[in-house]
Design brief:
about 325 residues, alpha/beta, TIM Barrel, twelve-stranded mixed beta sheet, about 15% strand
């Protein structure tokens, strides 16, 4: 198992399939994008599947989430999903996506064995969507989420980041829209993972701010704590349920003590935390001929050194060198 020195066991693997993205969200990357990884540096489809297989068969991973960048840009995505769905024991398979291209591929992903989808949507207003993402693709996102639901990739979860004086007035509207479509909305506190390093905690919309806005319009009942486990989102029943809304308060209510994640970047590096400043190379060892046992041992050693927490509140905190798009959500 992937056990760290604090006794936490990693059972959830986040696999970044690419650092590329077809949006330019202001809180993630600059308008002109970033320098993408060179093609040879990115894991091949077979390499991705091999490392996932090692994680599942040898290291106790039972949940795999494919991320990016934007994972729908990965040409081999459907084949990767199908190969991972064939593993024994079969892991739970999910995808985090901006949903721009999801309408055309949702059915194929479901047929390949994908279980669920998390989409990203920060605003329901076309003008704001263009302002935030620098692209006119709101209709594509809405169509993609609907296609995922129709394909049975449910419950469809929708992640939203609120920013002060940008879209912080849409909390209630977003929840009403999600409830009307049968989606589960999850607000995420903005984290210091932008390529520009412009994050300002003083301007962050907090979990408390979001709850206060929602509670002016909805009756929210906290879900029993034993339902949460190691999940990052605190959840509330909306007007008695069964509908729920979640908040991932990584900054103001960190859940590091129950973290069960390990991360693999698109270029084959193990990361113990979103905010880690060190990585452990599996790609180099794999391409040099390392056996499955050797790769599993490298992974185990990397995770043993996981820090107690992300350290955002520490006086000496430094953002990781890689932005979120290059780490994987």
């Amino acid at each position: 198992m992937l056990v760290d020195r604090y006794g936490r066991v990693a059972t959830d693997l986040r696999v970044s399939l690419t650092d590329r993205c077809n949006l330019r969200c202001t809180y993630c990357m600059p308008e002109n994008g970033l320098a993408w990884l060179p093609g040879p540096d990115v894991l091949t489809d077979d390499e991705v599947v091999r490392l996932v297989r090692i994680a599942v068969e040898r290291l106790g991973i039972n949940e795999v989430r494919f991320t990016g960048g934007e994972p729908l840009l990965r040409r081999g995505l459907v084949d990767i999903v199908a190969a991972c769905a064939a593993l024994e024991p079969r892991p739970d398979l999910s995808l985090t996506t901006n949903a721009v291209g999801l309408a055309r591929i949702a059915a194929a992903l479901a047929a390949a064995g994908l279980d669920r989808v998390n989409g990203s949507l920060d605003t329901l207003r076309a003008d704001r969507f263009e302002q935030l993402t620098r692209r006119k693709r709101l209709d594509d996102v809405l169509a993609g989420l609907a296609a995922a639901d129709a394909a049975g990739l449910s419950p469809v979860k929708v992640n939203a980041v609120l920013m002060r004086d940008v879209n912080d007035d849409e909390a209630v509207d977003l929840l009403g829209w999600a409830l009307g479509n049968g989606y589960e909305l999850r607000f995420i506190e903005q984290m210091p993972l932008d390529a520009q390093h412009g994050w300002d905690r003083a301007r962050m919309v907090t979990a408390g701010d979001i709850l206060a806005a929602l509670q002016r319009h909805y009756h929210l009942t906290p879900e029993a704590s034993d339902h949460r486990g190691s999940a990052p989102a605190e959840r509330w029943l909306v007007d008695g349920g069964p509908a729920r809304v979640g908040i991932i308060a990584s900054v103001t209510r960190p859940f590091c003590g129950t973290c069960d994640r390990t991360r693999l970047t698109a270029d084959g590096q193990v990361r113990t935390c979103l905010f880690a400043r060190e990585e452990s190379d599996l790609r180099g060892a794999m391409r040099a001929g390392a056996s499955d046992d050797e790769l599993a041992q490298r992974w185990t050693t990397a995770m043993a050194g996981k820090a107690a927490g992300h350290g955002i509140d520490d006086p000496g905190f430094l953002q990781p060198d890689r932005p979120m798009s290059a780490i994987g959500g």
